[in-house]
Design goal:
This protein is an alpha/beta fold. Helix content is about 25%, strand content about 25%.
Length: about 180
């Protein structure tokens, strides 16, 4: 699904994505994907922020899980341990229906690393993926079950979710 990008700020060939509007699309998509037994787990850090807010907005008890990709990255030797959150899963992974959340799906390498991390904790019955933005550029055969938006960015740019002190979402686009 491709959501409205709220291109209210298209300027000089650049497009500013409205992260809050896309969050609304993600919330609708997650409502359609989840069952009574679905557990939410977000990839640190943007996906964890999404999972936390979705957990609240859906009126779900407890906390959402957080998954770190740090220990299973294929570029660990170059990156080392990041300062991001550590894995916390407040539910039993064995036999669970898990909806994995991330802010931006790009190459698929972070999702691969997080799946390895998840399976260190047990064997879920099913894992699905929902993302705020799918930017294409896959290097691995990974696909989101739901994407609030699909955009194309040059490989020289990175896109990441950020949030204000008040918790409002916005995107940061950086040259790499």
């Amino acid at each position: 699904m491709t959501a409205p990008l709220s291109a209210s700020a298209a300027r000089a060939g650049s497009l500013v994505l409205d992260a809050e509007a896309l969050y609304g699309e993600l919330l609708r998509g997650v409502r359609s994907l989840r069952t009574l037994d679905t557990r939410l787990a977000g990839i640190a850090s943007g996906g964890a922020w999404l999972a936390e807010r979705l957990q609240h907005d859906l009126g779900l008890d407890g906390a959402a899980g957080v998954l770190s990709s740090a220990m299973h990255r294929d570029d660990f030797a170059q990156r080392g341990l990041s300062a991001s959150a550590q894995t916390t899963l407040p539910f039993d992974v064995n036999g669970a229906d898990i909806l994995l959340l991330d802010d931006v799906l790009y190459t698929g390498r972070t999702v691969r690393a997080v799946l390895n991390e998840l399976y260190d904790y047990g064997r879920p019955a099913r894992v699905r993926l929902a993302v705020l933005v799918d930017r294409g550029g896959r290097e691995l055969p990974v696909q989101a079950d739901f994407a609030a938006a699909r955009v194309a960015l040059p490989g020289t740019q990175s896109l990441a979710l950020a949030r204000t002190d008040a918790g409002a979402f916005h995107f940061q686009i950086c040259e790499v």
